[in-house]
Amino acid sequence: MWRMTEYPPAAAFPPLPATAAKTTGTTWQIAAWSLWDWGGAAFNAVMTTFVFTALYLTGNAFGGADHATAVLAFAMSVSGLFIALLAPVAGQRSDHSGRRKLWLGINTLIVAVLTGACFFVQPNESYLLFGCLLIAAGHVFFELASVNYNAMLLQISTKTTIGKISGFGWAAGYLGGIVALLIVFFALIKPEVGIFGITAADGMTYRAVAVFSALWIIIFSIPVLLAIPESKPDRSMPKVGFFQSYRELFRTIVRLGKTSPHTLYFLISSAIFRDGLAAIFTFGAVLAVGSFGFKTGDVLIFAIAGNVVAAVGALSAGFFDDKFGPKAVIVTSLCGLLISGGLLLFLEGKTAFWIFGLILCLFVGPAQSSARTFMGRLAPEGQEGEMFGLYATTGRAVSFLAPQLFGWSIVIFGAQKWGILGILVVLLAGLLMLLPVKKPQLAREP
To answer: Is 197 left (phi over 0), alpha (psi -120 to 50) or beta?
Structure first.
């Protein structure tokens, strides 16, 4: 049996010693770490949110939007199951072996290969399942890479700087998405003949987007692999087999419930409100077109503007996180989301969506960033990967919640716009469950 560090209650983590409080990553290490998020935006923003799946894979060439979307949703649900099963054990094993950077590199490379393979998805219904499986598998390996990437945050920050650095990373991801979307739009999508003579014939415009995204991911993942040293293995923990790792994982969860229940409470509450945050991005474009009169060009412009606002929110919230703590930032952000989303429910037209949709984007970034720092402040030294693996797993465990309530709200009230209510219910539930959770004690500079 391997040794397990005792988990103190969430509020009882002591401030860092004076020497540790002054130790943080270099400017180059922080920038290199953030560039991975910048590169990953090509998969999240370009491939899965705004371009490849939204404008190509779920189009008429693949059997119609309803059929293609259903197949994609099924594939994504299967990918969520794999993430929930693999993420915590992957993090645990990288902690024990000291191969955090190695597995970040391997998983990122697999994401890039799967993304590039989307070039072979031709505009025919017979290629639909192939395309959906590539995107779904990409999500699995992207989440596994993210477990190690998030754990690296603890290598380049302290309890006094984690908020700013996490916010900087989230902002880099949003800005990377903006730049990648602009390049794709003006170089490939908008012109009749794009760079290298690429046209829309045979779906080549969007297939070329896949190649661009793969290269973007690879190029911007290299700096973190060069700048951040490999994590140190825990020699006191004996090696265990893959299936034995699940037994140790179960013991970790039981121990959390006994010695640090508020950490477990946070994992549950964050899983709920993070599902609501994900739904805002998932259904935002759908609502803009179906309920607020947006056209395709309007959606892309809003996507760019929304990413800018979200980046500003994430970057500025990092300073409030370090000063007031992540819980205060999350609670404030969720309240802002509930108010602005509630107003959208009763307003009409493009202007209303532009105003309050951008306000939603402003609060999404801080909530996402501070949820990560909350987990980082709670993670015991040497178990960062395992804890972020649990963080990924709990987030996937309820990933059905917001989409289900979104759909049922539309069915019950008879209009697409009422889907907003389903998202608001999820955000409110996450907020109410977060309120009793003790905040982690902030470290102070001596």
So the answer is: left
Rounded-to-10 torsion of CA 209, 213, 215, 219 = 150
Residue 98's region, left for phi above 0, alpha for psi from -120 to 50, else beta, is left
Total count of domains within the chain: 1
DSSP H helices, 118-234, are: 128-152, 162-184, 204-227
What does the pLDDT look like over 371-391, one tens digit per residue?
888 887 877 766 666 677 677
Taking residues 38-45, report their average pLDDT.
92
Distance CA 418, CA 39 (A): 35
Q: Is residue 441 part of a domain?
A: no
Q: Is the dihedral of CA 236, 240, 246, 247 positive or negative?
A: negative
Q: Is residue 444 part of a domain?
A: no
Within-domain flag for 17: no
Tens of pLDDT, residue by residue over 86-104, are 776 776 666 666 678 888 9
Range of the domain at 111: 26-434
Query: What percentage of the chain exceeds 90 in pLDDT?
Result: 26
Q: Is the dihedral of CA 280, 272, 378, 437 positive or negative?
A: positive
Q: At what angle do helices 242-259 and 384-397 cross, to 10 degrees?
A: 90
pLDDT per residue as tens digits for the range 309-325 = 888 888 887 778 888 88
Angle at 353 between CA 347 and CA 354, to 5 degrees: 140
CATH number at residue 387: 1.20.1250.20
Instruction: Specify whether the CB–CB gap between 112 and 218 falls below 8 A.
Output: yes
- Residue-wise pLDDT tens digits, 227-264: 988 777 655 555 555 566 666 666 767 776 676 787 88
Q: How far apart are CA 209 and CA 326, in angstroms?
A: 37
d(CA 59, CA 69): 9
Kindly state the tokens that stand for 423: 């998202």
Contacts of 24 (CB under 8 A, 6+ apart): 156, 157, 158, 161, 165
Q: How far apart are CA 99 and CA 86, in angstroms?
A: 16
C-alpha distances out from residue 153 to 234, 373, 424, Å: 18, 9, 30
